[in-house]
Design a protein that fits this description.
With 302 residues, the protein is an alpha+beta fold. The chain has 2 helices and 19 strands.
């Protein structure tokens, strides 16, 4: 539908429901077309009613003349004339019904064209972008709004060509989104684009994410794919105390006295981080020291 936008009923950030009117395009011409088609439909219905009456009368006349013809009371010519009038009435009735069907189709088309003057939300979601203003000329292919569906997000990850062999369709892949405080989500590989990007020599992998009200389009996240298994020592990320470029943890001795110990950290895994050096398996830590100075103090478990 081409026409001037006369009204925008939503703005960025508004939640919308499927079928809700978002914008209105000037409907003067489509409305006039609907009115003309409605009038034509009424006229066609009247013509059908009149032709039905004529056909009923012609049928009754033919039946009477048939009885008279069987009794030799009318000539063959008179009977043939009455029969011809009946056949003409029948043809006229069929023609008016065909005209009625054409009028009905024209009315449906006019109503469909009129419906295009109302821009409707295709699904439940939220308006993330408004790309037009009242007075602008709307035309086919011109975006007016961006509507984002809720609860159906996916992560698009670029995987190096050498690592693509570790990715398999349908497999579960942990996804960490920075804006969600490194909360780990369980994603699922739903598509592997078969063509590599010629510049980066990487493949696009699409991972479907579970429903989470905190997700938004445009967030940055990382997907993790297993290359194999190895043993490692993991500690909570909250236990790490950072002072400048140094990283340390508070370790408890047998008497629950805390002492600060510097450690070397490796890769993160969700809310945990790998310890490469500085700790031994089985040692106890203060998991949430915060900014407190606990060195040399006795710590009681809560």
């Amino acid at each position: 539908m081409m026409g001037n936008i006369v009204e925008l009923r939503v703005h960025e950030g508004d939640r919308v429901q499927r079928g809700q009117v978002l914008a209105v395009i000037d409907d003067a011409q489509p409305r006039a077309a609907v009115e003309r088609a409605t009038s034509a439909m009424s006229a066609a219905e009247q013509e059908v009613a009149a032709s039905d009456s004529d056909l009923t009368l012609a049928q009754s006349t033919l039946n009477r003349y048939q009885n008279l013809y069987d009794k030799k009371s009318v000539s063959p010519q008179e009977f043939d004339e009455v029969k011809a009038r009946y056949q003409a009435a029948l043809a006229h009735r069929d023609m008016t019904r065909a005209g009625q069907e054409q009028a009905k189709a024209a009315l449906a088309q006019a109503r469909t064209s009129f419906s295009y003057t109302r821009i409707l939300a295709p699904f439940d979601g939220v308006i993330t972008e408004k790309k037009a203003d009242p007075g602008m000329l709307a035309s086919p292919g011109l975006p007016i709004f961006t509507v984002e569906g809720l609860g159906r997000y996916r992560l698009e990850a670029a995987v190096n060509e050498n690592d693509l062999r570790y990715v398999r369709m349908g497999e579960q892949a942990p996804v960490v989104v920075d804006a969600l405080d490194n909360t780990e989500l369980r994603g699922k590989v739903v598509q592997i684009v078969p063509a590599a990007d010629p510049g980066s020599r990487s493949f696009l992998v699409k991972i479907e994410l579970p429903a989470d009200v905190r997700l938004r389009s445009g967030l940055f996240g990382r997907a993790q794919f297993s290359r194999g298994e190895r043993s490692s020592l993991l500690i909570p990320q909250s236990a790490v105390v950072e002072r400048g470029q140094l990283q340390s943890v508070y370790v408890l001795d047998l008497n629950r006295i805390a002492s600060l110990r510097y450690v070397t950290l490796g890769k993160k895994s969700g809310t945990q981080v790998e310890v490469l050096a500085g700790l031994q398996e089985g040692e106890r830590l203060v998991t949430k020291p915060g900014d407190l100075d606990l060195n040399g103090k006795r710590i009681e478990a809560q």
